[in-house]
UniProtKB/TrEMBL annotation:
Pfam families: Amidohydro_1. Keywords: Hydrolase, Metal-binding, Zinc. One of its GO terms (molecular function) is hydrolase activity, acting on carbon-nitrogen (but not peptide) bonds, in cyclic amidines. Residues 63-427 form the Amidohydrolase-related domain. InterPro entries: Amidohydro-rel (IPR006680), Metal-dep_hydrolase_composite (IPR011059), Metal_Hydrolase (IPR032466), MTA/SAH_deaminase (IPR050287). SUPFAM superfamilies: Composite domain of metallo-dependent hydrolases, Metallo-dependent hydrolases. It comes from Thermosphaera aggregans (strain DSM 11486 / M11TL). This is Amidohydrolase. Coiled coil: none annotated. It comes from the Archaea.
Amino acid sequence: MVKMADIYIRGGWVLTLDSNRRIIKKGAVAISDGLIIDVGKREELDPSYKSFSDIVIEAERDIVMPGLVNTHVHLAQGLIRHCADYLPLIKWLKNRVWPLQGNYKPEEALASAKLVVAEMLKTGTTAFLETGLVGRYGPDNIIEFLHESGIRAAVARHVMDLKGYALEENVLHEGLVEPGDTSFKDTLRLYHKYNGLSNRIWIWFGPRTPGAVSLELYRKISETARELNTGITMHLAEVREDVEYTMKSFGKKPVEFAHWLGLTGRNVVLVHVVWVDDEEIMLLSKTGTTVSHNPSSNMKLASGAARISDMLKAGVNVALGTDGGPSNNTYDLMREMKHAALLQPVRTLNAEAIRAEQVVEMATINGARALMIDHLVGSIEKGKRADIIILDYWVPHIHPLVNPISHLAYAASGNDVKHSIIDGKLVVYDRKLLTIDEEKIIEEAEKAAWEVYNRAGICKEPDTVWPIL
């Protein structure tokens, strides 16, 4: 029977990530009205769609898979991705990152967000979780740009009423300080204005790290998020100082502290979660709380190696995040898969500590579950929204292709992405952005970065011991 499709993908390997985790050789996918309407073998689907679709993408030498979901992104840090090498977390924040972000103007924060989104779209991310915008960034402009770009996003708005980090008081840069009432009410305003927009934009609560939020405000955030059926994301147990703070101040380990305040559950994404013990891991599993694993950031800042293999064994939903520009230097989630795959064997001295399949799940279906949108995206199945990426495997570093899962985890990078489809619409085709102007974005970011560095009084020259002539 002849059928019509908006887009018909004639793939080489189709990784469905469905409940059976089917891998279809010589597979095909049909898309109509933003939905996946058919998945199967090319020989079975070709008669119905090959000659009767608006767009036919020949992908016989490609890997077709669900779009990647980045569960920890700092949009405001795109402009400052090189600002703080060789520093541990708290010095990194106090001396470089916070002073720069505390000097942003709205147009500069927007330029940063555009730069980050352009990079994510071109490297296979189709949905992401922003960890926390503040008022000085002009969150409305950023959210409206996200909608226009075509990407899918859960956007957290920072909420705070203290100025500390762990046991250090009054360390947050004044340019980032906001009263609790102001930041909380503005999150509600953004929620009522944008939440659910085009079924691609959601507004979450982004409480700052323990030390910057009072117990009363944490509880208020927890209660309100559940009333509104929205999410919460927060950094937790990233460094040893976080454990020292919750133990000394409250007699509770970090995950116990979060649970005590209602900051665990299906709607919560806790970020990093490096310094935890067996009991805390079981609590994460029992409550259905997601952990966003950011291996590059943890390695670069010498924060430690999270117990991801133990969490997966315990049934914790673990997803992947890139973190921000200064702690990673890239927003390429495909690269993050390799770091996640390699870090656990190093941590455990066990080559079987984690499998490539688990890492690919972390970057796709687990990420969708973290954002509470796994009923919409995260796998290639009939009836789901079409968030799909297509990678070129006809390249030396992914060839010969015997096991596409292994190559994704250990060999591929975001530069291998040829096409990206979000909600059934092409946003990247033949490695070119279709919804935003890449050249203009880069030019605006270059100008904005110099202005931020100059205003903050921080040298933008390369931090290198080599002579620059």
